[in-house]
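DM from R.C. (forwarded with permission)

"hey, sorry to bug you on a friday — could you get me a structure for this? deadline for the figure draft is monday and I only need the backbone to look sensible"
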Amino acid sequence: MVNKYKVDMVAISEPMVNKNKVEGYKRYLGFNQCLVNSNGQIWCFWRNNCTVDNIQIHDQLVTFKFQQNGSNHDYYVTIVYAKCTAAKRMDLWHNLEDLDNSITSPWLGSDHRPMLLKCFNDNSVGIKYFKFLDFWIDQDDFKTLVAKEWQVEVDGNPMWRLQQKLKNLGRRLSKWSIEEIGDVNENADEWEAKMEFLEEMDLIDNSKTSREELNKGHAEYVYWLNKQESILKQKSHIRWFEEGERNTKYFHAVIIERRRKLEISRIMNNKGNWISGEDKIANKPVRYFEKLFNLRESNVDPQILDCIPECITDDNNNYMMSCSEEEEIKDVVFNMSTDSAAGPDRYSRIFYYCCWDIITREVVEFVQFFFIKGKLTKFFSTLFWFLSLK
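My reply, with the result:
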Protein backbone atom coordinates (compact mmCIF):
# COMPACT_ATOMS: atom_id res chain seq x y z
CA MET A 1 0.00 0.00 0.00
CA VAL A 2 2.85 2.40 0.84
CA ASN A 3 4.46 1.94 -2.59
CA LYS A 4 1.23 1.86 -4.59
CA TYR A 5 -0.47 4.94 -3.12
CA LYS A 6 2.63 6.94 -2.01
CA VAL A 7 1.04 7.64 1.37
CA ASP A 8 2.41 10.33 3.70
CA MET A 9 1.41 8.64 6.95
CA VAL A 10 0.88 5.02 8.03
CA ALA A 11 -0.36 3.60 11.33
CA ILE A 12 -0.07 -0.10 12.20
CA SER A 13 -2.04 -1.73 15.00
CA GLU A 14 -0.56 -4.86 16.60
CA PRO A 15 2.55 -5.21 14.38
CA MET A 16 3.62 -8.47 16.07
CA VAL A 17 7.24 -7.26 16.06
CA ASN A 18 9.46 -6.04 18.90
CA LYS A 19 9.16 -2.25 19.16
CA ASN A 20 12.97 -1.90 19.22
CA LYS A 21 12.92 -2.60 15.47
CA VAL A 22 10.67 0.36 14.63
CA GLU A 23 13.59 2.49 13.36
CA GLY A 24 14.60 -0.20 10.89
CA TYR A 25 11.05 -0.52 9.57
CA LYS A 26 10.81 3.28 9.31
CA ARG A 27 13.77 3.33 6.92
CA TYR A 28 12.58 0.23 5.08
CA LEU A 29 9.20 1.81 4.36
CA GLY A 30 10.81 5.11 3.36
CA PHE A 31 9.43 7.34 6.13
CA ASN A 32 11.23 10.09 8.07
CA GLN A 33 9.53 10.03 11.50
CA CYS A 34 7.89 7.44 13.75
CA LEU A 35 6.37 6.91 17.19
CA VAL A 36 5.33 3.89 19.27
CA ASN A 37 2.84 3.75 22.14
CA SER A 38 3.80 2.50 25.59
CA ASN A 39 3.14 -1.23 25.03
CA GLY A 40 4.47 -1.27 21.45
CA GLN A 41 1.14 -2.27 19.90
CA ILE A 42 0.61 0.89 17.81
CA TRP A 43 3.26 2.10 15.36
CA CYS A 44 2.94 5.36 13.40
CA PHE A 45 5.16 6.53 10.53
CA TRP A 46 5.06 9.77 8.54
CA ARG A 47 7.07 11.83 6.08
CA ASN A 48 8.60 15.29 6.49
CA ASN A 49 6.09 16.83 4.05
CA CYS A 50 3.45 16.80 6.81
CA THR A 51 3.22 17.92 10.42
CA VAL A 52 2.13 15.53 13.17
CA ASP A 53 1.40 16.76 16.70
CA ASN A 54 0.88 14.18 19.43
CA ILE A 55 -2.39 14.78 21.31
CA GLN A 56 -2.66 11.61 23.37
CA ILE A 57 -0.53 8.45 23.63
CA HIS A 58 -2.15 5.63 25.62
CA ASP A 59 -1.65 1.86 25.81
CA GLN A 60 -4.95 1.43 23.92
CA LEU A 61 -4.86 4.42 21.55
CA VAL A 62 -2.74 7.07 19.88
CA THR A 63 -4.29 10.37 18.78
CA PHE A 64 -2.51 13.05 16.81
CA LYS A 65 -3.23 16.12 14.70
CA PHE A 66 -2.18 15.73 11.07
CA GLN A 67 -1.56 18.53 8.57
CA GLN A 68 0.06 18.43 5.16
CA ASN A 69 2.61 21.17 4.50
CA GLY A 70 1.03 23.96 2.50
CA SER A 71 -2.49 23.08 3.67
CA ASN A 72 -4.64 25.06 6.09
CA HIS A 73 -6.73 22.07 7.16
CA ASP A 74 -6.12 19.92 10.26
CA TYR A 75 -7.22 16.32 10.65
CA TYR A 76 -7.31 14.35 13.87
CA VAL A 77 -6.50 10.66 13.70
CA THR A 78 -7.00 8.05 16.42
CA ILE A 79 -5.51 4.58 16.14
CA VAL A 80 -7.01 2.04 18.55
CA TYR A 81 -5.63 -1.17 20.04
CA ALA A 82 -8.41 -2.22 22.40
CA LYS A 83 -8.16 -4.62 25.33
CA CYS A 84 -10.00 -7.94 25.16
CA THR A 85 -12.44 -7.41 28.07
CA ALA A 86 -15.08 -4.75 28.62
CA ALA A 87 -13.64 -3.81 32.02
CA LYS A 88 -10.19 -3.14 30.58
CA ARG A 89 -11.72 -1.07 27.76
CA MET A 90 -13.35 1.41 30.21
CA ASP A 91 -10.26 3.68 30.15
CA LEU A 92 -10.36 3.61 26.36
CA TRP A 93 -13.99 4.78 26.27
CA HIS A 94 -13.30 7.57 28.76
CA ASN A 95 -10.41 8.79 26.64
CA LEU A 96 -12.53 8.72 23.48
CA GLU A 97 -15.28 10.70 25.23
CA ASP A 98 -12.78 13.36 26.31
CA LEU A 99 -11.48 13.60 22.74
CA ASP A 100 -15.00 13.90 21.37
CA ASN A 101 -15.66 16.87 23.63
CA SER A 102 -12.44 18.67 22.67
CA ILE A 103 -11.96 18.00 18.94
CA THR A 104 -13.87 20.24 16.52
CA SER A 105 -11.95 19.48 13.29
CA PRO A 106 -12.47 16.38 11.11
CA TRP A 107 -11.65 13.27 13.13
CA LEU A 108 -11.29 9.67 12.09
CA GLY A 109 -10.28 6.48 13.82
CA SER A 110 -9.52 2.84 13.14
CA ASP A 111 -9.33 -0.36 15.18
CA HIS A 112 -7.49 -2.98 13.06
CA ARG A 113 -9.65 -2.16 10.03
CA PRO A 114 -7.49 -1.20 6.98
CA MET A 115 -8.27 2.34 5.86
CA LEU A 116 -6.88 4.56 3.09
CA LEU A 117 -7.56 8.29 3.38
CA LYS A 118 -7.00 11.01 0.77
CA CYS A 119 -7.14 14.40 2.47
CA PHE A 120 -6.18 16.90 -0.23
CA ASN A 121 -7.77 18.46 -3.30
CA ASP A 122 -6.23 17.22 -6.53
CA ASN A 123 -8.26 19.37 -8.93
CA SER A 124 -5.37 21.53 -10.10
CA VAL A 125 -3.43 19.70 -12.79
CA GLY A 126 -0.52 21.56 -14.39
CA ILE A 127 0.62 21.04 -17.95
CA LYS A 128 3.36 18.44 -18.14
CA TYR A 129 5.17 18.28 -21.45
CA PHE A 130 6.57 15.09 -22.89
CA LYS A 131 10.31 14.53 -22.81
CA PHE A 132 12.11 11.44 -24.04
CA LEU A 133 14.26 9.82 -21.32
CA ASP A 134 17.41 8.18 -22.64
CA PHE A 135 17.34 5.22 -20.23
CA TRP A 136 14.10 4.03 -21.84
CA ILE A 137 16.07 2.41 -24.66
CA ASP A 138 17.56 -0.08 -22.16
CA GLN A 139 14.13 -1.47 -21.26
CA ASP A 140 13.48 -4.88 -22.82
CA ASP A 141 10.11 -3.98 -24.31
CA PHE A 142 11.01 -0.46 -25.52
CA LYS A 143 11.61 -1.15 -29.22
CA THR A 144 8.65 -3.55 -29.37
CA LEU A 145 6.40 -0.78 -28.04
CA VAL A 146 7.83 1.79 -30.48
CA ALA A 147 7.42 -0.54 -33.46
CA LYS A 148 3.83 -1.34 -32.55
CA GLU A 149 2.85 2.31 -32.07
CA TRP A 150 4.69 3.40 -35.21
CA GLN A 151 2.70 0.96 -37.36
CA VAL A 152 -0.51 2.93 -36.73
CA GLU A 153 -1.34 4.64 -40.03
CA VAL A 154 -1.70 8.44 -40.18
CA ASP A 155 -3.18 10.23 -43.19
CA GLY A 156 -1.71 13.43 -44.58
CA ASN A 157 1.51 14.76 -46.08
CA PRO A 158 4.91 13.44 -44.83
CA MET A 159 5.42 16.39 -42.49
CA TRP A 160 2.04 15.87 -40.84
CA ARG A 161 2.52 12.09 -40.59
CA LEU A 162 5.87 12.36 -38.79
CA GLN A 163 4.53 15.05 -36.47
CA GLN A 164 1.47 13.00 -35.48
CA LYS A 165 3.40 9.76 -35.10
CA LEU A 166 5.89 11.42 -32.77
CA LYS A 167 3.06 12.93 -30.72
CA ASN A 168 1.16 9.64 -30.50
CA LEU A 169 4.33 7.76 -29.57
CA GLY A 170 5.15 10.37 -26.91
CA ARG A 171 1.76 9.87 -25.23
CA ARG A 172 2.19 6.09 -25.32
CA LEU A 173 5.73 6.23 -23.93
CA SER A 174 4.65 8.53 -21.09
CA LYS A 175 1.87 6.15 -20.07
CA TRP A 176 4.17 3.13 -20.40
CA SER A 177 6.86 4.77 -18.26
CA ILE A 178 4.37 5.56 -15.47
CA GLU A 179 2.82 2.08 -15.49
CA GLU A 180 5.91 -0.08 -16.05
CA ILE A 181 8.79 1.92 -14.54
CA GLY A 182 7.30 4.38 -12.07
CA ASP A 183 8.94 7.37 -10.40
CA VAL A 184 12.72 6.88 -10.65
CA ASN A 185 13.64 9.31 -7.87
CA GLU A 186 11.12 7.87 -5.44
CA ASN A 187 12.24 4.31 -6.19
CA ALA A 188 15.90 5.28 -5.70
CA ASP A 189 15.09 6.87 -2.32
CA GLU A 190 12.96 3.89 -1.33
CA TRP A 191 15.73 1.41 -2.10
CA GLU A 192 18.28 3.53 -0.30
CA ALA A 193 16.18 3.21 2.86
CA LYS A 194 15.68 -0.51 2.24
CA MET A 195 19.44 -1.00 1.87
CA GLU A 196 20.03 0.56 5.32
CA PHE A 197 17.47 -1.83 6.78
CA LEU A 198 18.93 -4.89 4.98
CA GLU A 199 22.44 -3.97 6.11
CA GLU A 200 21.26 -3.77 9.72
CA MET A 201 19.46 -7.11 9.40
CA ASP A 202 22.60 -8.69 7.93
CA LEU A 203 24.70 -7.42 10.83
CA ILE A 204 22.19 -8.87 13.30
CA ASP A 205 21.50 -12.23 11.60
CA ASN A 206 24.83 -12.74 9.78
CA SER A 207 23.36 -15.62 7.79
CA LYS A 208 23.44 -16.80 4.20
CA THR A 209 19.82 -15.74 3.73
CA SER A 210 20.45 -12.20 5.01
CA ARG A 211 23.49 -11.83 2.72
CA GLU A 212 21.47 -13.02 -0.28
CA GLU A 213 18.75 -10.49 0.51
CA LEU A 214 21.39 -7.79 0.91
CA ASN A 215 22.96 -8.63 -2.47
CA LYS A 216 19.57 -8.64 -4.20
CA GLY A 217 18.74 -5.31 -2.60
CA HIS A 218 22.08 -3.83 -3.67
CA ALA A 219 21.48 -4.88 -7.28
CA GLU A 220 18.04 -3.28 -7.25
CA TYR A 221 19.42 -0.11 -5.64
CA VAL A 222 22.16 0.22 -8.29
CA TYR A 223 19.52 -0.38 -11.01
CA TRP A 224 17.53 2.68 -9.88
CA LEU A 225 20.63 4.77 -9.23
CA ASN A 226 21.76 4.25 -12.83
CA LYS A 227 18.38 5.45 -14.11
CA GLN A 228 18.50 8.47 -11.80
CA GLU A 229 22.01 9.29 -13.00
CA SER A 230 20.87 9.07 -16.64
CA ILE A 231 18.09 11.60 -16.00
CA LEU A 232 20.46 13.98 -14.24
CA LYS A 233 22.98 13.73 -17.09
CA GLN A 234 20.25 14.50 -19.58
CA LYS A 235 18.98 17.49 -17.61
CA SER A 236 22.43 18.96 -17.07
CA HIS A 237 23.22 18.92 -20.84
CA ILE A 238 26.85 18.12 -20.08
CA ARG A 239 28.93 16.35 -22.71
CA TRP A 240 30.46 13.30 -21.13
CA PHE A 241 33.68 12.61 -22.98
CA GLU A 242 34.73 10.27 -20.19
CA GLU A 243 32.54 8.47 -17.67
CA GLY A 244 33.43 9.73 -14.22
CA GLU A 245 32.38 9.03 -10.66
CA ARG A 246 28.68 9.40 -9.88
CA ASN A 247 28.06 12.80 -8.31
CA THR A 248 24.39 13.75 -8.31
CA LYS A 249 25.02 16.92 -6.27
CA TYR A 250 27.24 18.20 -9.07
CA PHE A 251 24.56 17.62 -11.70
CA HIS A 252 21.92 19.29 -9.54
CA ALA A 253 24.26 22.28 -9.15
CA VAL A 254 24.78 22.48 -12.91
CA ILE A 255 21.01 22.40 -13.55
CA ILE A 256 20.36 25.11 -10.92
CA GLU A 257 23.15 27.30 -12.28
CA ARG A 258 21.88 26.91 -15.85
CA ARG A 259 18.39 27.96 -14.78
CA ARG A 260 19.82 30.91 -12.84
CA LYS A 261 21.67 32.15 -15.93
CA LEU A 262 18.52 31.88 -18.02
CA GLU A 263 16.52 33.97 -15.57
CA ILE A 264 16.06 37.64 -16.54
CA SER A 265 15.75 39.81 -13.43
CA ARG A 266 16.09 43.19 -15.18
CA ILE A 267 16.66 44.76 -18.63
CA MET A 268 17.94 48.13 -19.82
CA ASN A 269 15.73 50.35 -21.99
CA ASN A 270 16.91 52.62 -24.84
CA LYS A 271 17.44 55.46 -22.36
CA GLY A 272 19.92 53.46 -20.30
CA ASN A 273 17.55 52.89 -17.38
CA TRP A 274 17.13 49.48 -15.76
CA ILE A 275 13.63 47.96 -15.75
CA SER A 276 12.68 45.28 -13.21
CA GLY A 277 9.50 43.36 -12.41
CA GLU A 278 8.00 40.53 -14.44
CA ASP A 279 5.21 42.59 -16.04
CA LYS A 280 7.46 45.49 -17.05
CA ILE A 281 10.14 43.16 -18.41
CA ALA A 282 7.54 41.23 -20.42
CA ASN A 283 5.89 44.35 -21.89
CA LYS A 284 9.07 46.16 -22.92
CA PRO A 285 10.20 43.69 -25.66
CA VAL A 286 6.62 43.51 -26.97
CA ARG A 287 6.46 47.28 -27.42
CA TYR A 288 9.94 47.33 -28.95
CA PHE A 289 9.17 44.75 -31.64
CA GLU A 290 5.73 46.23 -32.32
CA LYS A 291 7.46 49.50 -33.11
CA LEU A 292 10.21 47.76 -35.09
CA PHE A 293 7.89 45.75 -37.33
CA ASN A 294 5.45 48.57 -37.92
CA LEU A 295 7.94 50.99 -39.48
CA ARG A 296 7.05 52.65 -42.73
CA GLU A 297 8.13 50.85 -45.85
CA SER A 298 11.28 52.29 -47.37
CA ASN A 299 12.11 52.43 -51.06
CA VAL A 300 15.30 50.48 -51.69
CA ASP A 301 16.94 50.51 -55.12
CA PRO A 302 17.31 46.82 -56.12
CA GLN A 303 20.44 47.72 -58.11
CA ILE A 304 22.29 48.17 -54.82
CA LEU A 305 22.71 44.36 -54.80
CA ASP A 306 24.70 44.46 -58.05
CA CYS A 307 27.83 45.43 -56.14
CA ILE A 308 27.82 42.08 -54.30
CA PRO A 309 29.89 39.50 -56.23
CA GLU A 310 28.26 36.17 -57.07
CA CYS A 311 30.00 33.37 -55.14
CA ILE A 312 27.43 30.64 -55.72
CA THR A 313 27.15 29.14 -59.19
CA ASP A 314 23.94 27.80 -60.64
CA ASP A 315 25.29 24.26 -60.19
CA ASN A 316 26.02 24.97 -56.51
CA ASN A 317 22.57 26.41 -56.05
CA ASN A 318 20.87 23.48 -57.75
CA TYR A 319 22.80 21.06 -55.56
CA MET A 320 21.83 22.97 -52.41
CA MET A 321 18.17 22.89 -53.43
CA SER A 322 18.06 19.23 -54.45
CA CYS A 323 16.43 16.55 -52.31
CA SER A 324 18.67 14.59 -49.97
CA GLU A 325 18.89 10.83 -50.34
CA GLU A 326 18.36 8.35 -47.51
CA GLU A 327 22.06 7.69 -46.87
CA GLU A 328 22.83 11.40 -46.65
CA ILE A 329 20.02 11.95 -44.16
CA LYS A 330 21.13 8.96 -42.11
CA ASP A 331 24.72 10.26 -42.00
CA VAL A 332 23.52 13.61 -40.62
CA VAL A 333 21.36 11.96 -37.97
CA PHE A 334 24.08 9.57 -36.84
CA ASN A 335 26.74 12.32 -36.74
CA MET A 336 24.76 14.40 -34.25
CA SER A 337 26.06 14.32 -30.68
CA THR A 338 24.13 12.11 -28.30
CA ASP A 339 24.76 14.68 -25.52
CA SER A 340 23.16 17.63 -27.28
CA ALA A 341 19.79 18.94 -26.13
CA ALA A 342 16.55 17.46 -27.45
CA GLY A 343 14.85 19.13 -30.40
CA PRO A 344 11.47 20.84 -30.35
CA ASP A 345 9.78 17.44 -30.61
CA ARG A 346 11.30 16.61 -27.15
CA TYR A 347 13.04 13.48 -28.49
CA SER A 348 16.78 13.15 -27.85
CA ARG A 349 19.23 12.05 -30.53
CA ILE A 350 19.53 8.62 -28.88
CA PHE A 351 15.93 7.88 -29.86
CA TYR A 352 16.72 8.36 -33.55
CA TYR A 353 19.86 6.21 -33.33
CA CYS A 354 18.13 3.41 -31.51
CA CYS A 355 14.92 3.38 -33.59
CA TRP A 356 16.27 4.33 -37.01
CA ASP A 357 15.29 0.97 -38.50
CA ILE A 358 11.68 1.63 -37.41
CA ILE A 359 11.27 5.32 -38.29
CA THR A 360 13.46 5.56 -41.44
CA ARG A 361 10.69 5.92 -44.04
CA GLU A 362 8.81 8.70 -42.22
CA VAL A 363 11.97 10.71 -41.47
CA VAL A 364 13.34 10.46 -45.03
CA GLU A 365 9.99 11.40 -46.58
CA PHE A 366 9.72 14.31 -44.14
CA VAL A 367 13.13 15.74 -45.11
CA GLN A 368 12.52 15.31 -48.85
CA PHE A 369 9.10 16.94 -48.53
CA PHE A 370 10.72 19.94 -46.87
CA PHE A 371 13.14 20.43 -49.77
CA ILE A 372 10.26 20.26 -52.22
CA LYS A 373 7.88 22.61 -50.35
CA GLY A 374 10.38 24.69 -48.38
CA LYS A 375 8.07 25.03 -45.36
CA LEU A 376 8.00 23.71 -41.79
CA THR A 377 5.13 23.41 -39.34
CA LYS A 378 5.47 25.03 -35.91
CA PHE A 379 6.08 21.61 -34.40
CA PHE A 380 9.53 21.48 -36.01
CA SER A 381 12.50 23.80 -36.08
CA THR A 382 14.84 24.34 -39.01
CA LEU A 383 17.78 23.74 -36.68
CA PHE A 384 16.42 20.29 -35.92
CA TRP A 385 17.38 18.60 -39.16
CA PHE A 386 18.73 20.85 -41.83
CA LEU A 387 21.76 22.80 -40.71
CA SER A 388 24.18 20.08 -41.80
CA LEU A 389 22.30 18.36 -44.59
CA LYS A 390 24.29 20.06 -47.33
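R.C.: lifesaver. Residues 2-110 form a domain with the Deoxyribonuclease I; Chain A fold (CATH 3.60.10.10).
me: no worries. DSSP finds 14 helices and nine strands in the chain.
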